[in-house]
Amino acid sequence: MSAEAHAFSLVSPVVLLAAAVIAVPIFKKIGLGSVLGYLIAGLIIGPFGFAFFSDPNAIIHVAELGVVMYLFIIGLEMRPTHLWSLRREIFGLGTLQICLAALALTGVGLAFGFSWQVAFVGGAGFVLTSTAIVMQLLGDRGDISQPRGQKIIAILLFEDLLIVPLLAIVAFLSPIQVVESTADRLQGIGIAIAAIVGLIVAGYWLLNPLFRLLAAAKAREVMTAAALLVVLGAALLMQVSGLSMAMGAFLAGVLLSESTFRHQIEADIEPFRGILLGLFFLGVGMSLDLSVVANNWQLIIGGVIALMVVKSLVIYIVARLTKANHYDALDRALVMAQGGEFAFVLFAAAAGAKVIDATVQSNMTAIVVISMVLTPIIGILFKRFTISKDEQSLEGVRIAEGLSGSVLLIGFGRFGQVTSQLLLARGVDVTIIDSNINMIQSAERFGFKIYYGDGARLDILHASGAETAEAIVVCVDDKDTTNKIVDLVQDEFPLAKLMVRSYDREHSLHLVKQNVDFIMRETFESAMSFGEAVLKQLGLDEHDVAEISENIRERDQERFETEIAADDVNAGVGMQYTQSKPRPTAPLVKPKQDSKLLNESELAPSKQNN
């Protein structure tokens, strides 16, 4: 093969990679997110931009494996017991949302003057959300493992189950009559059930032994190949049986979620998932036909607005009916407002079955693509112009009001949780407040009673019982917030003992000036204990370790007093031990007997004996 042919064959991958490398960091830098960066980059390099590519659908079909791998990784994080606990969300919430949205969106199509068959196809294509975009957005926000994210994932899983039934309905609507016997239908159902059962059996009894065998071979590249084989094999099995590839990958992930090789498999798959998912977004951007948009812009823009608004409204209503709070319901409605990648398959099948014509297919495809492009933008605007989720998500959370206790503990993070254990073990009447809603909800699942409240607000301190507390314990992990709380407490509640978690040495000096009753540097005691453990591991006995530890504490206190007197955090730097004069690690105690010098005469007999 000539050099020119080699160069030509590399143009496509180089352009794709360059587009991603340039666009994504820029869009993330300006706060528009990676998804929008991929989509716009795809539009620029696609057939209606610089025309580096003429067939974006080919790229989408290959890159759809990125969505498949994403669902596999989600499955790895979802144990079978957890999946079973989501059954109501998958089948109950999913059914309610899909049915109501399908009816409403079909109504939109009828309002635009289409026949009920065309309106149904358009509504069905738009009712199924883009798994790729939603999963990427949830991942970027860190919401996949949160309750709001789990409900969205449950709905997406139910949508994947609807792919085959919807294709069957499209075939039924076709004016081209295809005679299919009952036996053929039953055979198709049987194949699908057999594929699912076969995948479950293989997951439980074959995959773990396979990975143990490969791990024993100590060939990392083979483990990576095996991980890809599992994902693609499960996807292929579902595809040939008429089911969703993503569903097959998800089931394979769930079956491996309790495997000892779970983390290794996830690490092997992650790079491929990221690249292919990015490639998918590039392909979606390329598929936006600007000439179709220009020729039918009124219909397309009107369709985008109508379908997204109606779908969002239905999702919000369903979320509220199922007792989601306002913020979570609104968030779910906007995140899932777009059409999905399955619409491309459904519209193509409908066009092939003569249910819709080529013009309608092009217009519907453009509507779905534009809705996918708009979703990240809407999400950014929603985040920027709405009040924080903590203020919106207070349903079911106890508000600090009319409280009292002998101790008021402010901040229930890692530090506050450990501190509270000593007080609760003694039966002390403790009132605990925090401003992190997710943490409060998580703590309540373990039996803690935490009240929502910002300790840096005077009204919250009053409502939390600060004026009757014997001690106010500040355990927040933000220095500025701590200082605000200290100022408020000393001005308004001077009779309470004020005990404060210090961020660092400089912060401790500031708190001393504020006449705080007790200060604890957040890492000092843990670092001292850790250093003591290291010395013991090196062979020192308990007495020597205690002596060294006491010496360090005395020097640190002396240094701290020097810094207070000088009002300078650097005043006592010279009191620290440094590596300028290396010290032996052992022995640090005097030998039990003196050493002797062995001269030649003493060594002679031993030499002769040898």
From TrEMBL:
Residues 571-610 are annotated as: Disordered. The chain crosses the membrane at residues 6-27, 34-53, 59-78, 90-112, 118-139, 151-174, 186-207, 273-293, 299-321, 333-352, 364-382. One of its GO terms (biological process) is proton transmembrane transport. Its main location: membrane. It comes from the Bacteria. PROSITE patterns: RCK_N. It comes from Acinetobacter sedimenti. One of its GO terms (molecular function) is potassium ion transmembrane transporter activity. The keyword Transmembrane helix applies. It is a multi-pass membrane protein. Residues 404-520 form the RCK N-terminal domain. Belongs to the monovalent cation:proton antiporter 2 (CPA2) transporter (TC 2.A.37) family. The keyword Flavoprotein does not apply. GO terms for cellular component: endomembrane system; plasma membrane. Keywords: Antiport, Cell membrane, Ion transport, Membrane, Potassium, Potassium transport, Transmembrane, Transmembrane helix, Transport. InterPro entries: Cation/H_exchanger_TM (IPR006153), K/H_exchanger (IPR004771), K_uptake_TrkA (IPR006036), Na+/solute_symporter_sf (IPR038770), NAD(P)-bd_dom_sf (IPR036291), RCK_N (IPR003148). It is found in: Endomembrane system. This is Monovalent cation:proton antiporter-2 (CPA2) family protein. Pfam families: Na_H_Exchanger (PF00999), TrkA_N (PF02254).
